[in-house]
């Protein structure tokens, strides 16, 4: 399904720190890990080889295995290979020494105590649906998967859920729904991504334009720090301002500050079924004008944009009868109570018509609405049928949305690459999808150029290089341009304070 960019990825700058010499796992001399910034580390049972690599004696891995439940530590190369990359298929992903599938907080603590003692990098991993190489494995490191940690308790009185990180987003929603409650954040990947990964990336989604993103629902966390200490932050309290906002610091930290082992989520009462509007436009500009006309006056429960290429790709995959001739389509929903939904939908229809929509369809049938929403969610896999993808996630303040979208069109023309655009338009968060042929090296280079230029454009418009997917490894080279030296320095100081030896997800967010 994935088509990794070969020979090098978009942000695959030669100096990528996780791109080190090959690891020799499982040979008779033991497992080898790179000595990155740890040349002075002295480890009992480890020796430094002539080529600058530290050789981890197999006994050390056995020591780790002995602290874990049987079968939690995996070294079978075929199994380990399945944990090297996330959905972005980072071509520079390393080969880990082992994978640990933790079953509880104590397992996570055991891994981090061992890793700290021996200077071994640890890459936390949820379900591996990330789109920025955040859980790309590191050569000689441990991939620490939380997929087996799946407990959930819903408390309808406080309207909270206490959940372990491995449960999928869709499963959290289902558990909440059994109590008449709702967990809103809904990444398009909600059926394949974990709640731990959502917290670690501060995931957004379709309904976030009205209901906010993951952090707005995280009341508390249990986090295991780099040295193996487990701390509890926040809790099932709707108001709590005691101390610094450390809970928020860990949300969105992409596995670089600690491993999330439990999340306390705020739930809200289930909303009424949504009414849906679909509008087709003869030009992209008219569709974007309609977005601004809608967001100026109301808060839709969803406001999504698809360009002609995305519509065509979804239509090829799903045969839904979408208007292939339209240059752009908007999909909007209202879940306002009672007659208010009808009024909101009518106002959105009017806004689209006044901006030049050629066809507008409205329905209060939830099943019809869900079919259109499923079409929107299917865009990434559908566009993948056209070629390999570099996925953008740039966002801008709303008034800059038209300039961003027209600028992306220009970049596509300048770089002679195809860029499909799909967007959570209501909050200015766009996903230009750069399509290329991985066997055409010239096109690979042009795609990589476009990848950088789109982020430069967003930054120039006062926007962000990532609205919801995270920086990971593929976008980290652009982070200094967005944040500036002072904020980068502050970020490094926080990282160093919490992870002084740099073992947690090295190479993600920061070089
Ligand atoms: C088809 C498709 C559609 C998508 N649509 C959206 C969307 O609409 N909105 C959106 O926000 N994202 C979207 N995504 C991206 C992705 O699903 C999210 O980023 C998701 O939050 C990742 O969750 P995961 O469990 O797969 O995490 P992973 O990919 O395994 O990890 C993501 C990051 O979190 C860290 N991490 C994971 N678990 C933990 C933990 N327990 N403790 C500490 N760090 C951890 C990893 O180290 C990594 O940096 C989409 C992806 C796909 C494939």
Automatic annotation (TrEMBL):
Its cofactor is FAD. Gene3D superfamilies: 3.30.465.10, 3.30.70.2740, Vanillyl-alcohol Oxidase, Chain A, domain 4. Keywords: FAD, Flavoprotein, Oxidoreductase. The keyword Oxidoreductase applies. It comes from Rhodococcus olei. InterPro entries: FAD-bd_oxidored_4_C (IPR004113), FAD-bd_PCMH (IPR016166), FAD-bd_PCMH-like_sf (IPR036318), FAD-bd_PCMH_sub2 (IPR016169), FAD-linked_Oxase-like_C (IPR016164), FAD-linked_OxidoTrans_Type4 (IPR051914), Oxid_FAD_bind_N (IPR006094), Vanillyl_alc_oxidase_C-sub2 (IPR016171). This is FAD-linked oxidase C-terminal domain-containing protein. Residues 92-270 form the FAD-binding PCMH-type domain. The lineage of its organism: Bacteria, Bacillati, Actinomycetota, Actinomycetes, Mycobacteriales.
């Amino acid at each position: 399904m994935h088509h990794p960019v070969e020979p090098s990825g978009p942000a695959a700058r030669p100096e990528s720190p996780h791109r080190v010499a090959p690891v020799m796992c499982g040979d008779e001399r033991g497992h080898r890990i790179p000595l990155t910034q740890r040349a002075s580390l002295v480890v009992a049972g480890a020796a430094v080889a002539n080529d600058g690599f530290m050789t981890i004696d197999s006994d050390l891995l056995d020591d780790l295995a002995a602290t874990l439940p049987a079968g939690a530590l995996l070294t079978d190369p075929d199994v380990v290979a399945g944990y090297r990359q996330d959905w972005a298929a980072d071509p520079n992903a390393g080969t880990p020494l082992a994978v640990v599938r933790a079953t509880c907080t104590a397992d996570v603590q055991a891994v981090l105590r061992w890793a700290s003692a021996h200077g071994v990098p640890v890459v936390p991993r949820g379900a591996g649906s990330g789109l920025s190489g955040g859980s790309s494995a590191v050569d000689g490191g441990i991939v620490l998967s939380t997929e087996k940690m799946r407990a959930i308790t819903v408390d309808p009185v406080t309207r909270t859920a206490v959940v372990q990180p491995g449960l999928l987003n869709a499963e959290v929603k289902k558990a909440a729904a059994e109590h008449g409650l709702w967990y809103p954040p809904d990444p398009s990947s909600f059926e394949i991504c974990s709640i731990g990964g959502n917290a670690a990336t501060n995931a957004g989604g379709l309904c976030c334009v009205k209901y906010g993103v993951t952090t707005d629902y995280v009341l508390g966390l249990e986090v295991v720090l780099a040295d193996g200490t487990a701390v509890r932050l926040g809790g099932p309290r709707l108001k709590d301002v005691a101390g610094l906002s450390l809970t928020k610091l860990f949300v969105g930290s992409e596995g670089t500050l600690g491993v999330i082992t439990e999340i306390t989520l705020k739930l809200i009462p289930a909303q009424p079924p949504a009414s849906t509007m679909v509008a087709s436009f003869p030009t992209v500009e008219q569709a974007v004008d309609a977005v601004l006309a809608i967001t100026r006056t109301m808060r839709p429960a969803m406001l999504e944009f698809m360009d002609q290429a995305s519509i065509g790709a979804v239509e090829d995959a799903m045969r839904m009868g979408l208007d292939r001739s339209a240059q752009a389509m908007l999909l909007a929903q209202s879940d306002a109570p009672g007659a208010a939904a009808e009024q909101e939908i009518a106002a959105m229809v009017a806004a689209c018509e006044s901006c030049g929509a050629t066809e507008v369809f409205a329905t209060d049938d939830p099943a019809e609405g869900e079919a259109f929403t499923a079409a929107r969610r299917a865009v990434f896999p559908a566009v993948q049928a056209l070629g390999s993808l570099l996925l953008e996630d740039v966002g801008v303040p709303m008034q800059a949305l038209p300039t961003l979208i027209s600028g992306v069109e220009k970049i596509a023309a300048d770089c002679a690459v195809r860029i499909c655009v799909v967007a959570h338009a209501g909050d200015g968060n766009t996903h230009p999808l750069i399509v290329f042929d991985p066997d055409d090296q010239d096109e690979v280079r042009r795609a990589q150029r476009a990848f950088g230029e789109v982020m430069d454009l967003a930054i120039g418009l006062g926007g962000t290089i990532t609205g919801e997917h995270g920086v990971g490894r593929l976008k980290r080279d652009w982070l200094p341009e967005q944040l500036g030296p002072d904020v980068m320095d502050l970020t490094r100081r926080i990282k160093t304070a919490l992870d002084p030896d740099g073992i947690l997800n090295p190479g993600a967010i920061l070089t």
